[in-house]
Amino acid sequence: MFKIFRKNHTTANVELKDNNQMSALKLAAKKTAEEFNVDEQNIQSSIFASAAAGNTIIEDRAVFMFTTSDKKSRAHTMTLTFKDPVAWGNDKASIDYLIVGVFPDGSDQNTIDSLTEKVTDIMHDNSAQLDDIKFNNGELNKLNQSFTD
Length: 149
Prior knowledge:
By secondary structure, the chain is of the alpha/beta class. The protein has five helices and five strands. It is 42% helix and 28% strand. It has a five-stranded mixed β-sheet with strand order 1-4-5-3-2, with helices on both faces.
């Protein structure tokens, strides 16, 4: 019943001034900090470390990364979609979805892996609709909420 009051942790159809991975990472850190009222510098450092450790590419179009915060007591996600795909990583995958998992400090690897798997499965199950979802704020919000339901 209370799900209707959940905040939208999504931003659809983002147009990056500099359409590259670094700009996308900086924007993800900024939006995550704003959405969850956490320190932007800590989030940026954590997101950059997550990206440096390796990217989880989903359906050849989405990247999942994570950060931790002492202000969170459960996992959350935030999803951005890009108007123009961003060339990502060494293989220059065309990324138009960026999903950030925000975990409580001290979360173990099993917790992170579990959410990563859930996000991967949901994105796979919705792969045929991803082109339509990425421009529709309501549908993007439903998709994002499904990651942590």
